[in-house]
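for ur thesis appendix - Damage response protein 1. copy paste whatever u need, i formatted it the way the template wanted (i think)
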Amino acid sequence: MSVASPINLILLSLFAVLLYFHFRPRQPVSLPSGPPPAVFRIYTPTKLLEFNGQGDRSVYLAVRGRVFDVTPGKNFYGPGGPYENFAGRDASRGLANQSFDEDMLTKDLSGPLDDLKDLDQDQLENLQSWEERFSEKYLVVGKLVAEGDPEAPAS
Ligand code: HEM
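the 3d part is after this line
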């Protein structure tokens, strides 16, 4: 029987097809791009306001000078969320008072930070437990300083 018998030719073509499917060029695997790495920065209240979750921006809020990236909780703090007033703001007084009213926010963004000196023991405990919750759940991405503070970045 010759090597070029029909059965051998069929087997050879089958082998060639298998080789092709095994080694054919494939689409490169593209992984979804993750969030940009968080960098620790100094924020003034005006700068922090940019991170209020509008559009596809991140949501940050500050508690006693620490800036948290609360973007994973965008349904709470993003536009239309129940705590949207806190987005891009110093939320300390509101958290201490269990209130998300506008009155709880520092009005003058260019003025001094809220020193919270008038808070009583209960309010301070409230604030502390919120702070602990945020520390467990969210990344600290910066520090909040008043406009004009020596640490504030030049605008
Ligand atoms: C009508 C009363 C309220 C109801 C029914 C309510 C309900 C809720 C619920 C269901 C959660 C989600 C809990 C979780 O899944 O971890 C939550 C979280 C939260 N609530 Fe309220 N809440 C109320 C009042 C308030 C008030 C007055 C404040 C003001 C400080 C507040 C601030 C927050 C904050 C900061 C979170 C955490 C969100 C996070 O984990 O990032 N809530 N609330």
